[in-house]
Amino acid sequence: MTQAVTETRDLFSKFDALIAEREALLATGVRDPFAIVMDEVKSPTQAVIKGKDTILLGTYNYMGMTFDPDVVAAGKKALDDFGAGTTGSRVLNGTYQGHADVEAALKEFYGTSSAMVFSTGYQANLGMISALAGKGDYVVLDADSHASIYDGCFLGDADIVRFRHNSVEDLDKRLGRLPADALKLVVLEGVYSMLGDVAPLPDMVAAVRKHANCMILVDEAHGMGFFGPNGRGVYEEQGVEADVDFVVGTFSKSVGTVGGFCVSNHPKFEVMRLVCRPYIFTASLPPSVVATAATSIRKLMHAGEKRAHLWKNSKRLHKGLTDLGFKLGTDTPQSAIIAVILTDQMQAVSMWQALLELGLYVNMARPPATPAGMFLLRCSLCAEHSDEQVEQIIGMFAAAGKATGAIG
Ligand code: PMP
After folding, report:
1. Which of 30, 56, 103, 379 would you call most buried, defined as having the most Cβ atoms within 10 angstroms of its Cβ?
2. Is 4 a residue whose pLDDT tops 80?
């Protein structure tokens, strides 16, 4: 269907400013940061982009499970045994043995009585939040919450109350202003993915418990696999497991495939399967995906050495970039995400492109996805990055920073 571009106003007109800004940026000759193609992927940390061998430092593949031989073999076997897809919803023809098995793996991993798998982490937040908090209820959330958390509130039509990012005092104050008899869902994240900072969960839980009728959901998308003795997330590491009602997570980061989930010990949890629209009205994950996820989750239960190496990588990169003079999202390394803060879009894009030309891929992030209008290069480390690769990465930042004037 083709349509002539006209000057008349239509439903696309609201995007004109964005289109113009993007065209102006590309006219300066920079590559499009949002149109990268990985022509070949060699390992969790290496790909070929436009013919160039490139180190991957922006994948959220924290534990490097995408190429784990057991994980890949499980996927191939499920493809042979069960076919390419389920062609149906979980509540109709789309629940196979593999879906039940990955839910069993999650219950083992988290030690919970229930686990429910969604087709993505986005849909897990959308489904859980919209089904739990409806009209007349309140969702109390951190101002820097992920888009899927906000969208869950819109779908459920709950009233949104934001508190200042990671501020226990503001959370307490805002809860105190709500009617005591109203039902409230407090949504927190273990790791906030833009700056890589961690939530002070024990203090937040204590603040919430001062108020009546609150349940707590923690999104551990960026905490799973890495934090806590069993890799459950920041809420495990900080010792608040008994205080959290729901944990939402994703298979698209440490688990190394795609999918989302919620785990809980609530005795009525199973009713969620009958009321979550993003669970009911969409097709379930392909058998190969749930088989890879189940295998990966069970291996992550015994991944202490990988977790230790990932911490080593994160600390080394944080120190290396700090010593070079870059401004980072956190003063100390708090997670496997290290965000480099740049002054404006042009500097961010120039640095991003210079790194790519040197053979390093990082994620660029800009407003409105970022807090406080920041332009960021977000680095996410992998347990499979070798010590040598981390040194190479620091060297590339030094060269790109000097070439672009981002550092002196
Ligand atoms: N929650 C958070 C905090 C995230 O960062 C993301 C993905 N970036 C999601 C949820 C959604 O996960 P998925 O990619 O599985 O849709």
Report:
1. 379
2. no
Protein residue whose Cα sits closest to atom 4 of ligand 1 = 221
pLDDT digit string, tens, across residues 54-75: 999 999 999 999 999 999 999 9
Closest ligand 1 atom to residue 250 Cα is 15
What residues contact residue 235 under an 8 Å CB cut-off, 6+ apart?
A: 190, 201, 218, 220, 223, 228, 241, 244, 247
The answer to whether 91 and 280 have CB atoms below 8 angstroms apart is: yes
Class of domain 24-63+304-404: alpha beta
pLDDT of residue 30: 83
**What is the secondary structure of 321-362 as a DSSP string?**
HHHHT-EESSSS--SSEEEEEESSHHHHHHHHHHHHHHTEE-
Question: In the CATH scheme, what architecture does the domain 68-300 have?
Answer: 3-Layer(aba) Sandwich (3.40)
The encoded tokens of residue 10 equal: 């239509």
Rounded distance between C-alpha atoms, residue 374 and residue 132, angstroms: 32
How many whole angstroms from 238 Cα to the centroid of ligand 1? 21
In this structure, which residue's CA is closest to atom 12 in ligand 1? 121
CB-facing half-sphere around the CA of 157: CA atoms within 13 A? 3
- DSSP 3-state percent helix, strand, coil across the chain (nearest 5): 45, 20, 40
| C-alpha 152, offset from chain centre | 15
Q: pTM for the whole thing? A: 0.96
**Pocket of ligand 1, candidates 122, 234, 255: which has the most ligand atoms within 8 Å of its Cβ, to mutate?**
122
Question: Could you tell me the end-to-end alpha-carbon distance of the chain, in angstroms, rounded to an integer?
Answer: 52
Q: What are the structural domain ranges in the chain?
A: 24-63+304-404, 68-300
Residues in contact with ligand 1 (CB, 6 Å cut-off): 120-122, 125, 146, 148, 189, 193, 219, 221, 250, 252, 260
| E strand or H helix at 100 | helix 97-110
Cβ-contact 300, 104 below 8 angstroms: no
